[in-house]
Amino acid sequence: MARLLSSALLLAALAASAAAASPRRIATQVASACEFVTVPQLCTSIAFKSGATTLGELTKAAIDESLSSTQSARSVTQKALGAHSGDERLRKNLAVCDEAFANAVASLQEAQQKQGAAISDGKAHTEVTGAISTALVYVGSCNDAFSENPGLVSPVADATSIVKKLTSNCLSLAVAFQVKNGAY
After folding, report:
1. 87 φ, ψ to 5°?
2. Low-confidence stretches of the chain (pLDDT beneath 70)
3. Deepest in the core among 42, 106, 133, 153, taking most CB within 10 A?
């Protein structure tokens, strides 16, 4: 009888140990995914902020964060457009940024919608990575507009830099999720 009780306790302890190790393993997967993105610190911050425990959840949280930051960058750009009414060259470049951020927002919203229920479907997730990639190209066009005009300083350079890093991280995570789930 004592031996049976001992065996039952051992099995219960092993089951509890396995259950406790599982979240740790998932957290390790999320942490290791953050090692291979453009800015690991931003990725880790999103993981903690969102409470993501899987790569899919982290990808979703990264899309959400990138979308929110892109919307904020667009707002900053629109304020800068209003504040710089006299400099036509600056306004022209800010208009490029405004359009770029608007298009990036639309692309990230598309990624967000497609990512929801269909994240495990290879085709749908390929569309998610495509939409994120498109958003990244749009964000880059804001930088391009100012780099093509030497001496013209972008008042939205900081916002653009943050959005570009977040969106790049987002793309890395989406591709990692896609590869992990055999979509390639």
Report:
1. -95, 100
2. 1-27, 116-124, 182-184
3. 42
Give residue 72's region: left, alpha or beta (phi > 0; psi -120 to 50). alpha
Residue 96 near residue 120, CB atoms below 8 Å: no
Least Cα distance to 38 among 119, 139, 182 occurs for 139
* Single-letter residue type at 180: K
How does pLDDT run across 146-179, given as a tens digit for each residue? 999 888 999 999 999 999 999 999 999 999 888 8
For the record, the structure tokens of 19 come out as 């259950």
d(CA 16, CA 106): 45
User: How many other CB atoms are found less than 10 A from the CB of residue 7?
Assistant: 10
Q: Would you say 74 and 91 are in contact if contact means Cβ atoms under 8 Å apart? A: no
3-class DSSP assignment, residue 119: coil
CA 167, chain centre distance (Å): 5
pTM for this prediction: 0.81
- What DSSP assignment string belongs to 79-129? HHHHH--S-HHHHHHHHHHHHHHHHHHHHHHHHHHHHHHHTTSHHHHHHHH
